[in-house]
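Case study.
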Amino acid sequence: MESKGSILNIVMFPWLAHGHVSPFLELAKRLEKRNLTIHLCSTEVILNSIKKKISENDYPFLHFIEIKLPFNPELPPHHHTTSGLPPHLNYTLMRALDMASPYFSTILKQVKPDLVIYDIHQPWAPEVAASLSIPAVMFHTTSLSILYYGFHMNLKQGVEFPYPELNPQGSYFTKKVQKMFETLPAEDNFEERTPSHFSYLRSSEIVLTKTFREVEEGYVDYTSSLLGKKVIITGPLVTNPVEDDIIVETDSTVKLVIKWLDMKEKASTVLVSFGSECYLSREEREEMAYGLEQSNVNFIWVIRFPMNEKIISIEESIPEGFLKRVGERGLVIDKWVPQVKILTHTSIGGFISHCGWGSLTEAMGFGVPIIAVPVQYDQPINAKVIVKAGAGAEIYRDEEGGLNRLEIARVIKEVVLEDAGKEIRKKAREMKEKLVIEGDDQEIDVVVKELVRICSKHNSS
Ligand code: UDP
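After joint prediction, the assembly is written out as follows.
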């Protein structure tokens, strides 16, 4: 393993979800380029998927270390990731990783890093590191807003939330988000689990957070005061679209998608995608289908199902005759697509997204207006963040959480085609220009400086 000349030796340990691994990997690449040696620790199935995308020659000081989970018949090795994991096994996977903590300790003893960078669902990782006298820093991979929203709800009950514009839309999401903060600690309080919010509190002096100034700078001080730690912004950490070229070249379906996009007019098409672990119900799929049909815009719709759902074909999952009626105007795919590559295609004029933070930062980074359809977790708050930033509009749900085809068609038309969406399209373009011109070099310099400072202080204490 190469590490010569490196200023720091770091173990990075993301939660086992694509939306977490991806920002950890992007941060790892940037730190490696600044002469830090990185050991990215994850399960075999996740490391195999990463290795397909990056060349070791480009990152000689970026190494991969496998962590093995204890045997559990419910969790075969291909389920050591949330991607495609039946949702009821999410907690089982979390527990399995908790139980791998002795293995993580062995890894730290072997690598002897100067520092550990860990994720929210491993609140025990800083404890393991501390037992070996290694400092540890938490990396928060989603919006800053959900962080201070959650902490406000937990710590300041009865005190008015200072940013009411970020309250989730309607009573359906308000209840859902509140429940998340009520039930998360309760669920985590199962005797054997340490509550996840300890992850923030156990971080050494700072918390790293994947966001960018244009969108969330105004909330940094408030969050720092809530956490009692300095919040350090990493920038958007978006993947370079060139890295998706391997999939485009080697996968025939993906090749067809790009060819199909090549034939469409500029900014005429929306990408519809709900990330790596979020699935629409049958009713939601039906409304989405009719909404897309009535919007009259072109679309690529990525429909995915959890591995345990017995869906035989795409046709079965959407209204009868839909594909025939939309004809050349629409493409429906049930597999992984190179999202970054698609978002950078000139034919894309909008992105119907579940508002996973990874997807939103990619859309903002590439200047694609967002049509927000949040589903769960942090997504209702993330949707508000982008609406407030002016980079998108939200499709409202009814009080029971139902989607409505007319509302879907209305918002798509507004954002992609009509005069009413002009400002959103302009704002999306401006964000891209800002991010392309400024990049994230400045933020990463600050991150490196802080990490070096923490390690030096630790070594001299
Ligand atoms: N993604 C992709 N192809 C797909 C689905 C998702 O490349 O077919 C990528 C997407 O570009 C993003 C990540 O997966 O980087 C999803 O992260 P996000 O935070 O948006 O959502 P999550 O999957 O965590 O809900």
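Observations recorded in class. Residues 17-19, 22, 273, 275-278, 302, 336-340, 356-359, 362 surround uridine-5'-diphosphate (CB under 6 Å). The longest helix spans residues 441-460. We will return to this complex in the next lecture.
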